[in-house]
Design goal:
By secondary structure, this protein is of the alpha/beta class. The protein contains 18 helices and 15 strands. A hairpin with an 8-residue loop joins strand 12 and strand 13. The structure holds pyridoxal-5'-phosphate. The site of pyridoxal-5'-phosphate has 20 residues, from helix 5, helix 12 and helix 16.
């Protein structure tokens, strides 16, 4: 019998986070103050983040120690398992070897607690009493609710309206761990009221919810804000995934040729791929990392690389990133966690330098991929994860056509057990293809007056 699972012991939970900034040939450009267009210093972030996280945000140290208290909580679900997808390989009749790293074993059901626990820890260290945040599909809000609960911090979540209506059980999950949840846009903030005045039926967007959560944090000195993706420190925390995966691939006697992961703001993609990209930088390996995004929110494949705001109202610094424009409101597709207009600056720079790749998929193709995965490997993937699976299936089919075997590693970054509404919509034929026209993208980008890059 061949081994299906590749498991590590608790002792092998990584002791350090890997900071890819140290190895990047071109460092990302600095964030800019929107008013002066001058680079901002770390102090500009102090009203919304604790200094411990700001230090990580700007750090160029290659390895950053993980405090024992955090590793202790990680033990609840880490190290996470890796599997060989024998059944999927068989169904595709492909010579490719397919593996997947599964983060759905965390209590919140995704990779998000890896950073939520770390962020709550550093906030607690600095005496923060309340943390505000946004959530799209509810994965991030759940993870932060869990983490704040461990550290005795209040948690206030602005949940994108469309998801709030579609995913009531995610809200109850957050409530169970003690968080307060509000649909966004809400009437609790200037930002929310402004959007509601323009469109009382706004489905919301991550950009709007971020504006609301930041506004609340800026108003109160004991309140800080927390972001579940995009920022350097978030991507850093997620590198525990890839470090484990490097060891697990070694145990399997293999090395991936191709890594695929869904892409929202970049955290799960970075978490799995950065420790493998380290092998490219250090040992000259040629591992390809492909970020898979929805055709309805294609910032990596069709956006522009330029300075833009991280939120809709323009409260964040200007960040050098691939973007569709901060006013972009994506179509209400079901992969809620991927509906964000921009990409993290580390991943953006890596894409610009052609050190990673990106690919877009429409949502019907993604659900077909996810359902094939569920039927063969049994786990029902989060709709976001289906995007990476769709890329993997394309690559496995290409192996068959070309008659070559490649090793493909999929990031199964979450389960879809709270996403039955989305699967139901697929089964009842209610999901439609939604691909943006050139005009829609051009219109959204035309609203920007921020600096172009390169
Ligand atoms: C949040 C989330 C994503 C998208 O965010 P990234 O930062 O790009 O990882 C993707 N998949 C799942 C399961 C998520 O919870």
């Amino acid at each position: 019998m061949k081994d299906k699972k590749i498991l590590l012991s608790e002792k092998e939970i990584p002791e350090k986070w890997y900071n890819i900034m140290a190895d990047m040939p071109n460092k990302p450009l600095p964030p800019l103050n929107p008013a002066t267009r001058e680079p901002i210093g770390p102090d500009a972030l102090a009203p919304i983040f604790p200094m411990g996280l700001i230090a990580q945000e700007v750090s160029t140290e290659k390895w950053i120690e993980i405090p024992d208290e955090i590793r202790d909580i990680y033990k609840l679900w880490r190290p996470s398992p890796m599997y060989r997808a024998y059944n999927l390989e068989k169904a595709l009749d492909t010579p490719a070897k397919i593996y997947y790293k599964y983060e759905g074993v965390s209590p919140a059901g995704s990779h998000k607690p890896n950073t939520a626990i770390a962020q709550a820890y550093y906030n607690k260290q600095e005496g923060v009493k309340r943390i505000t945040t946004e959530t799209g599909a509810g994965q991030w809000g759940s993870a932060l609710a869990l983490a704040c609960n461990f550290f005795g911090i209040e948690c206030e979540v602005y949940m994108v309206r469309i998801s709030y209506d579609h995913k009531p059980y995610r809200k109850v999950m957050m409530n169970t761990w003690g968080a307060q949840v509000f649909p966004s846009p809400s009437d609790r903030t200037e930002a929310g009221r402004k959007i509601l005045a323009m469109d009382p039926n706004s489905p919301g967007s991550l950009g709007i919810a971020i504006s609301e959560a930041i506004e609340r944090a800026v108003m109160d000195e004991n309140t800080k804000y927390s972001l579940g993706s995009v920022l350097n420190h978030v991507l850093l925390h997620q590198t525990v995934i890839g470090q484990e995966a490097v060891k697990q691939m070694e145990m399997a006697g293999d090395l991936p040729d191709i890594i695929v992961a869904p892409f929202g703001g970049g955290s799960n993609f970075a978490g799995l791929s950065f420790p493998f990209l380290r092998l490219n930088f250090e040992e000259g390996k040629k591992i390809r990392a492909i970020a898979s995004e929805p055709a309805s929110c294609p910032k990596l494949t069709r956006g522009q690389f330029r300075y833009d705001f991280g939120d809709t109202i323009g409260m964040t610094p200007l960040l050098p990133m691939y973007t569709l424009g901060h006013n972009f409101v994506p179509a209400p597709i079901h992969a809620g966690g991927l509906r964000y207009h921009g990409a993290g600056i580390l991943v953006s720079q890596l894409l610009k330098d052609k050190l990673i790749e990106a690919r877009a998929h429409n949502q019907i193709e993604c659900f077909e991929a996810g359902i094939l995965f569920a039927k063969t490997e049994a786990i029902i993937p989060a709709p976001e994860a289906n995007h990476g699976i769709a890329t993997a299936i394309q690559e496995a089919r290409k192996c068959k056509e070309e008659g070559v075997s490649r090793t493909i590693l999929i990031h199964l970054c979450g389960h879809g057990n709270f996403d039955m509404g989305a699967y139901e919509a697929y089964f009842s034929g209610k999901l439609t293809e939604h691909e943006l026209t050139e005009k829609e993208i051009a219109n959204s980008l035309a609203e920007l007056d921020t600096p172009m890059i390169g």
